Amino acid sequence: MSDPRQTQSIFTRGAVDLGALARSNQAAAQRSAQPSAAPSSAFVFDVTEANFQDAALQRSVTTPVVLDFFVAGSQPHQQFSPLLEKLAAEGEGTWLLGRVDIEANPRLAQMFRIQGIPFVVAIVGGQPVDAFNQMLPETHLRQWIDAVLKAAGIEVQRGDDPRLLAADDALMDGDLDGAERAYRAILADTPADAIAESGLAQVALLRRTSGLDPEAVLAAAGEDLASQLLAADIEVLTGQADLAYKRLIDLVRRTPGDDRETVRKHLVSLFTVAGPDDPAVAKARRALASALF
Prior knowledge:
Elements: H1 18-28, E1 44-46, H2 52-60, E2 65-70, H3 75-91, E3 96-101, H4 106-111, E4 119-124, E5 127-132, H5 138-151, H6 162-172, H7 176-189, H8 194-209, H9 214-220, H10 225-237, H11 241-254, H12 257-274, H13 279-292
Parallel strand pairs: 1-3, 2-3
Antiparallel strand pairs: 2-4, 4-5
Helix pairs in contact: 6-7, 6-8, 7-8, 8-10, 8-12, 9-10, 10-11, 10-12, 11-12, 11-13
């Protein structure tokens, strides 16, 4: 997900006057704090009208604060809030979760123009940067939190996704059907996952080259389209991706019509095998653009 400060958000409907909230805290502090359940970890705390300035705004200057507005006993609170608390604990202090009871703190709900729950807002440097008002799947919620951390200038490091590890294991074991199912499941949840896209392209490559003799394929490569595409597959499979890219780019230059588009798509699929960060892919993409235009 992109930097939340540079995308459309709930806050485009009008600025949230956090200054007014801060000014109201002097009066609120004279009232007793609302009782609430104990936080589930050291990184989860309760936010009230009385402590909003210190607990949320001031803390957000150094550490992003995510506010979870809830109604006690509601289904969204029972289902979604525990997920937020789990991720806050996993974050180990890289971001903090503030819980706001809407019924006990109506002024906060009013200032954030809350119309329904769940309502979750991220505060960075004393200002709201993004918010959402729906129950997100865990994967999407993790991506949203990553974007908040990046907006705060915090480097995001994630451990290996166990789903990807399982898919990679299936691929290495030769279980192409199992690997394909696993990669497609990841892409159904996270369509832009470059690693899963690469894994799926590898499955397709292995299927196209299964049982073939690499030397024989390269030796038999003629001018026909099919043998050239297969030769490029073998070159990628045997660690000669540069040769494969050059072969197909040259083929694009001399091939007209629909066949040209077939070659281009095949080359792009081989780029996907390597992944978008491969320097050779970047160089070959520039050469392909030159060949096409």
